[in-house]
């Protein structure tokens, strides 16, 4: 059995208009709609899961689309940037694609670890990066999306968080969660966990005078880290409690089980199991096609469907 934190499971953000979110992530970025369900804690709001062909852990970016709700503010105690993997040969393709669709980009910037990084924002202002690096070919992408296969996004590369006190977060990551310091540049510290490499890294940016962020539309809600199974999840729940963390009960999210807690800098973390995965209630071919509800909401399906905004998957046409 694989023990320890294995890497990033998924990242969850709060967006505005549901159709606009779909058009951007499925239509423009070429991710697959892996699951269309509801926020289990607020079922009148969708929960979209985007990822690769089968929704492998480490490829999943999820959204709660709240419509034209109040805007959040980005600051300390939050994840601030989600970075995706692309092939080195895909840099020019993505620069042209984003610019042709009216997306303002900066870069590519060359980083010290031999990567090239393109920075941009989604329609709600959420910060995104495309990181071109060796080995991206070894990671999964969606083969049948709007982006040609050779240029498809290959999962999550890393995530960035902002905290006021780096030492507290650093000690927790290394002493409790098993992360290793990989590199440092100024107030940015990069850590990795598990086997290391893309999909296992977190950048901690420290800014003592930063204002705390406020979660709402346009902000990242939490980062979920992978554990192998429910036995490991319960072991980690106990370990975190013994380390002084306030940890939730185990929650059944249908496609994984999880617990939540805040690291010392205030960023909301989740631990999520790899199984059972997203193909338990749809075939791989039909993933993301129908609205899927947990059994405890099925009795209210007609009411929920009437409350949720009408949406459609973008027509997939490659350029």
From TrEMBL:
Keywords: Dioxygenase, Oxidoreductase. It comes from the Bacteria. The keyword 4Fe-4S does not apply. Signal peptide: none annotated. This is Ring-cleaving dioxygenase. Residues 7-133, 155-274 form the VOC domain. One of its GO terms (molecular function) is dioxygenase activity. The keyword DNA-binding does not apply. SUPFAM superfamilies: Glyoxalase/Bleomycin resistance protein/Dihydroxybiphenyl dioxygenase. InterPro entries: Extradiol_RC_dioxygenase, Glyas_Bleomycin-R_OHBP_Dase, Glyas_Fos-R_dOase_dom, VOC_core.
